[in-house]
Amino acid sequence: MKNFIIPATVIAGCFLLSFTVRIDASEKKGYTAALSDTVKNSQSTMGRQNTMAVYKGIETGDLSVMDKFVSKDIVDHGGPQDVKGLENVKKMLADIHNHFSSLKLTLISDAVSADGMYHFALGRMTGTTKDATMGLPANTPVDRMSVDVVRIENGMAVEHWSFDDPREMMKMMQMKKK
Description:
alpha+beta; 178 residues; disordered N terminus; globular; Nuclear Transport Factor 2, Chain: A; single chain
């Protein structure tokens, strides 16, 4: 089970909450109505800024910026068990930088759903494990891609899911054994 900690918490968590965008009630036309291009562009821009703030927080271990756009009742469905509550999620994400050297998180692409309730991002995490805490032996190079989905309610991130290719993890594990 320990071998799945990276895809379940690190990769899932790396992009957690990072696409959140505040949506004013005046911008919503209802849950099923499509947002105007202007509103979607504004939300995408804000989402990118929030993404970069969370990435920097994960890289440094300081995720206090999340207080501005993440619900205190956030639920992260990215690991083997749900992580509930903003403080618990921040602790999980802040600890990631302790286990990697040269940790770098990069936003590749992002999108906003037609109704503005969901944000999607394709991100990349690179670095080298410092220890075996994250399920790989120390000094293992990590280069992972992940797609994350964040649900927004009243302008705050309330749920997060992460999707990655487990075959990537298996390749890294096999390469390290050789």
